[in-house]
UniProtKB/TrEMBL annotation:
Bilayer topology annotation: Multi-pass membrane protein
UniProt record, GO biological process: glycerophospholipid biosynthetic process
Compartments, record wording: Membrane
Lineage of source species: unclassified sequences, metagenomes, ecological metagenomes
Lipid metabolism listed as a keyword: yes
Example of a GO MF term: CDP-diacylglycerol-glycerol-3-phosphate 3-phosphatidyltransferase activity
Chief site of localization: membrane
Name of the molecule in the record: CDP-diacylglycerol--glycerol-3-phosphate 3-phosphatidyltransferase
Organism per entry: marine sediment metagenome
Length: 193
C-alpha cells in the first residue's frame, strides 16, 4: 500500500466515521422535534457505523492517522450529544438521564482529553491506550443511552434503570481515577535527556 493511500481521508472506514459525525445533528433535530423512535433509529445506525468502520479498517488494511482521530471523536461526540439531550426533561419521558450522570460523563471525558494534551505537551506522550476501566465505563454509558432511547421510544417505564445509572457513575469515576493514576505515573518518571 502506498503512503498516499494509507493517509487518504477518503477510504471506507473514514467515510463511515464522518457519516457518524454527520448523523449527530440529525439525531438531535429528531429528538428536539419529539420524534424519539426516529431519533433512536438514527442513533443505533450511527452506533453501528462504529462497528463497521473498525471492521473495514482491519479487513481492508486502511488504518490511517486521520481515522485514528475521527473514529474516537465521532464516538465521543455522538455519546456526549445523546447524554445532553436525554438529560432534558421536556424532551424525554418516561426516562430522563440524571443531570449528575451527564455531568460526570462529560467531566471525565474533558479531564481525559485535557490530561492527554498536557502529557503530550510536557512529555511528548503520543499514544494513550484505553484501560479496562475506561472500556467498561464506555460500554456501560452506551448501554444506558440505548436503554433510555429504547424505553422512551415505546413509552415503557423501567424502574431498574436507576441502578444502571449508579453503576455507570461508579465506573465513570473509577475510570477517571485510573486514568489520573496512569498520567501521574507517566509524569513522575524522570524525563530522559
Amino acid at each position: 500500500m502506498r503512503i498516499e493511500e494509507k493517509n487518504s481521508l477518503l477510504n471506507l472506514p473514514n467515510i463511515l466515521s464522518l457519516l457518524r459525525i454527520l448523523l449527530i445533528p440529525v439525531f438531535l433535530a429528531l429528538m428536539i422535534r419529539g420524534k424519539i423512535m426516529a431519533a433512536s433509529a438514527v442513533f443505533f445506525f450511527a452506533g453501528f457505523t462504529d462497528v463497521l468502520d473498525g471492521a473495514a479498517a482491519r479487513l481492508l488494511h486502511q488504518k490511517t492517522k486521520i481515522g485514528a482521530l475521527l473514529d474516537p471523536a465521532g464516538d465521543k461526540l455522538l455519546m456526549t450529544s445523546a447524554f445532553i439531550v436525554l438529560a432534558i426533561p421536556s424532551l424525554n419521558s418516561p426516562h430522563i438521564i440524571p443531570l449528575w450522570l451527564t455531568i460526570a460523563v462529560i467531566s471525565r471525558d474533558l479531564f481525559i482529553v485535557s490530561s492527554a494534551f498536557a502529557l503530550y505537551k510536557l512529555r511528548g506522550q503520543k499514544t494513550f491506550l484505553p484501560s479496562f476501566w475506561g472500556k467498561s465505563s464506555t460500554v456501560c454509558q452506551f448501554i444506558v443511552l440505548v436503554l433510555v432511547l429504547f424505553f422512551n421510544s415505546f413509552q415503557i417505564s423501567f424502574p431498574y434503570l436507576r441502578l444502571l445509572y449508579f453503576l455507570t457513575l461508579a465506573l465513570t469515576l473509577l475510570s477517571g481515577a485510573h486514568y489520573f493514576y496512569i498520567g501521574f505515573k507517566i509524569i513522575s518518571v524522570p524525563k530522559k535527556s
